[in-house]
TrEMBL record:
PANTHER family from the UniProt entry: CADHERIN 6 (PTHR24027:SF428), CADHERIN-23 (PTHR24027)
TM regions (residue ranges): 598-619
The entry's keywords: Calcium, Cell adhesion, Cell membrane, Cleavage on pair of basic residues, Glycoprotein, Membrane, Metal-binding, Repeat, Signal, Transmembrane, Transmembrane helix
Primary localization: membrane
Its biological purpose: Cadherins are calcium-dependent cell adhesion proteins. They preferentially interact with themselves in a homophilic manner in connecting cells; cadherins may thus contribute to the sorting of heterogeneous cell types.
Membrane topology, record value: Single-pass type I membrane protein
Pfam family, one: Cadherin
Source organism of the structure: Hucho hucho
GO molecular function: beta-catenin binding; cadherin binding; calcium ion binding
UniProt protein name: Cadherin-10
Source taxon at top rank: Eukaryota
Source organism phylogeny: Eukaryota, Metazoa, Chordata, Craniata, Vertebrata
């Protein structure tokens, strides 16, 4: 192999001569490169202990005298690859892997050892690694999870697996793979070249209801599957998906249920269930009743969650009529069934259901679910409106008693005969108040009062022409003083509370009596309205300002009803276009302000409010004062409110302020004001006189008060508040109150104010001047 790894040395040189005809004919020479090499090859994964020899680099300038030096650079130079600088031998220092890097690009040159000058231009060469089969195939997935429909034909594609080999596919068979199945026979197979997995059995064998899951192991081997190749494996989990190949089947052929006859329509009777081996939508089914004497009495619905058939009551049951029923119920799939594998088996299933009816003591049963009756509104009291009828549905045929639920007839307009169920009137009726009356009649078994039932009765009152028509609203208009005869001044209409079958028809006319007939007339328009017209060309507001025109309104029903409505016409001054300019004072007040009745009402309200205010003030003055203490037995924790406002310093009548003047002048026999005094039980206290001193301290006064309260049996409990209001006598200025002054203003000497400083000197001059004036 050594001669293949060496580069080729091209010896010799080629001369070219070129004469420059322009400058003296100098001879030029061009030399081609003196050395070149091809690529080297190196085997990967070298396991030897020595460096791996790659080849030899040699220049044609190397004469073997040691003057040349080989230099290597590029990928891995000096680390992976080294060169002997003297002879150009190239070695690999490390173990290399082609899968990490397939080739290395290096550059080499030759320099003079002494001068360092390059003798050869730098040239690039490649070191390629030879591949060996050192990598096993690897699948793209460690685990495949796939599915295929059950009952698939043989050869149906399931999935494709793919493996890769890191070895060189261009060199040998190291990366040429072959697939095989090592687990999964005989159900599946795999194509050796493509890795496509296919079913290996026919539809009759691939049945999900027999086996649903399969685990297949696929093997990939390099070296084209030959002996000595490396292998890799993967696992494929294959699930057979469901197809609708199984019809539903009842678990039993006969079902039996029993229900009471009182069960209401729509109530479930029982459940039946069919089983389908398929899954999901393929297992969905529906039930229906296809036969039996209970075909019209019962229904069946499908529970979407449990796929059960629920039998319900379709019509009211009666034990006395039918005591049992038989139903034929059919079940089938909602999805189309694949019948290829059923053979002669039916696609539907049938079951028989027997339902027994149990007797129940039932309340009376009315002949109808509701009754509608009619009666004229002017029917006399006691007139029969209609009748209801109920009977005991049980075999006992117990008598029935009737009554009206008074909560539905609060005005007690009707009553019912307790024996025969006849409904009659007990009070006069009026259709205009209520056109319909809805009552409930109760039927009760005579022997079993708890067995009751009720029925609604709707009574319609038929209209009778008992109301006269009236004006639709209050009509008031005006007429100009200067007008023309036949001028329409107002259109009137009427309303009637009655409701005739053919609709309303009203007739209008003037009343036969009265002097107004020469002033106005009424023209019936024939459409339940009429126009009021003038019969004169001029009116005088000063002569007569208001006309009251009576209009007779008659209906067209029988018996005929009529009434008279009054139209108020005011005479006004108008402009040339007929627009009102001025009417009488009454008309202006009536149209622009409040009516007389409204003014009277407002005045009465004001008077009543004034009377209430005066009465409240009088009561407040006469209000008695509450006692200081409500109970003499309980005075602890009470707040005493006196509600008295003092009158200032000159008010000496509200309280005894002697204590403030002179504590020694307190009356010894004075009793408490917040309790009832009793001389027999509580004798007067003897007080110790306080020594009279000019500089008596407040402390002595307080101590005396404390002693008095401690020895007083009528004093409040221990947690009451005692107030000692005493101004001491030790003040230099003494009291400033005029109540405590011992002399009048005229006897005072204010000269001492001058001794208090410059600020009081002006005050002393003022009062001193007043005294001088008084003396003079």
């Amino acid at each position: 192999i050594e001669h293949q790894s060496f580069f080729l040395l091209m010896e010799g040189e080629e001369e070219e001569e070129d004469r420059d005809g322009g400058k003296g004919g100098k001879l030029l020479k061009r030399f081609k490169r003196g050395w070149m090499w091809n690529q080297f090859f190196l085997q990967e994964e070298y396991t030897g202990s020595d460096k791996q020899y790659i080849g030899k680099l040699q220049s044609d300038m190397d004469r073997g005298d040691g003057t040349l030096k080989y230099i290597l650079s590029g990928d891995g130079a000096g680390d992976i690859f080294t060169i002997d600088e003297n002879n150009g031998d190239l070695h690999a220092n490390k173990r290399l892997d082609r899968e990490d890097k397939a080739y290395y690009t290096l550059r080499a040159t030759v320099v003079n050892k002494n001068t360092g000058m390059k003798l050869e231009p730098e040239t690039e060469f490649i070191v390629k690694l030879h591949d060996i089969n050192d990598n096993e195939p690897i699948f793209t997935k460690e685990l495949y999870t796939v599915s295929v429909p059950e009952r698939s034909n043989m050869g149906t594609s399931v999935t494709q697996v793919t493996a890769t080999d890191a070895d060189d596919s261009m060199y040998g068979n190291s990366a040429k793979l072959r697939y095989s199945i090592s687990q999964g026979h005989p159900y599946f197979s795999v194509e050796p070249d493509t890795g496509i997995i296919r079913t290996a059995l026919g539809p009759g064998e691939m049945d999900r209801e027999k086996r649903e899951h399969y685990q297949v192991v696929i093997e990939a081997k390099d070296m084209a599957g030959q002996r000595g190749g490396l292998t890799g494996t993967t696992m494929v989990n294959i699930t057979l998906t469901d197809v609708n190949d199984n019809p539903p089947r009842f678990s039993q052929s006969i079902y039996q249920f029993s229900v009471p006859e009182s069960m209401k329509v729509g109530t479930p009777v029982g459940r039946i269930k069919a089983v389908d081996k398929d899954l999901g939508k393929n297992a969905e089914m529906f039930y229906n009743v296809v036969g039996g004497d209970g075909l019209d009495m019962f229904d069946v619905i499908t529970d979407k969650d449990s796929q059960e058939g629920i039998i319900t009551v379709g019509k009211p049951l009666d034990y006395e009529k039918t005591r049992s029923y038989t139903l034929e119920i059919q079940v089938q799939n909602t999805q189309i069934l694949d019948t290829r594998f059923l053979g002669y088996l039916p696609t539907k299933d049938m079951a028989t259901v027997r339902i027994g009816i149990e007797d129940v003591d039932e309340p009376p049963l009315f002949e109808r679910a509701s009754y509608v009756m009619e009666v004229k509104e002017d029917a006399a009291v006691g007139t029969a409106v209609g009748s209801v009828r109920a009977m005991d549905p049980d075999g006992y045929n117990s008598p029935v008693r009737y009554s009206i639920d008074r909560r539905t007839d609060l005005d007690r307009l009707f009553n019912v005969h307790s024996g025969n169920g006849s409904i009659f009137i007990t009070r006069p009726l009026d259709r205009e108040e209520a056109a319909w009356h809805n009552i409930s009649v109760i039927a009760t078994e005579f022997n079993k009062p708890l067995q009751t039932s009720r029925v609604p009765v709707y009574i319609r009152l038929l209209d009778v022409n008992d109301n006269a028509p009236t004006f639709a609203s209050f009509y008031e208009t005006f007429v100009c003083e200067k007008t023309k005869a036949g001028q329409k001044i107002q259109t009137v209409s009427a309303v009637d509370a009655d409701d005739p079958a053919g609709g309303h028809k009203f007739f209008f006319s003037l009343a036969t009596e009265g002097a107004y007939r020469g002033n106005f007339t009424v023209r019936d328009n024939g459409d339940n309205t009429a126009g009021v017209l003038t019969r004169r060309s001029s009116y005088s507001r000063l002569h007569k300002s208001v006309y009251l025109v009576p209009v007779v309104i008659t209906d067209g029903d029988f018996p005929m009803q009529s009434s008279t409505g009054t139209l108020t016409v005011r005479v006004c001054t108008c402009d040339r276009e007929g627009n009102m300019e001025l009417c009488n004072a009454e008309a202006q007040t009536s149209s622009a302000g409040l009516s007389t009745g409204a003014l009277v009402a407002i005045l009465l309200c004001v008077i009543i409010l004034l009377m209430i205010v005066v009465l409240f003030a009088a009561l407040k003055k006469q209000k008695k004062k509450e006692p200081l203490i409500i109970s003499k037995e309980d005075v602890r924790d009470n707040v005493v409110s006196y509600n008295d406002e003092g009158g200032g310093e000159e008010d000496t009548q509200a309280f005894d302020i002697g204590a403030l003047r002179n504590p020694e002048a307190i009356e010894e026999s004075k009793q408490r004001r917040d309790i009832i005094p009793s001389d027999t039980l509580y004798p007067p206290l003897r007080r110790t006189a306080i020594p009279s001193r000019d500089n008596a301290d407040v402390r002595d006064f307080i101590n005396q008060r404390v002693q008095d309260n401690d020895n007083n049996p009528t004093a409040p409990p221990y947690d009451s508040l005692a107030t000692y209001a005493y101004e001491g006598t030790g003040s230099v200025a003494e009291s400033l109150s005029s109540l405590g002054s011992a002399s009048s203003e005229g006897d005072q000497d204010y000269n001492y104010l001058s001794d208090w400083g410059p600020r009081f000197r002006k005050l002393a001059d003022m009062y001193g001047a007043e005294d001088s004036d008084c003396d003079s």
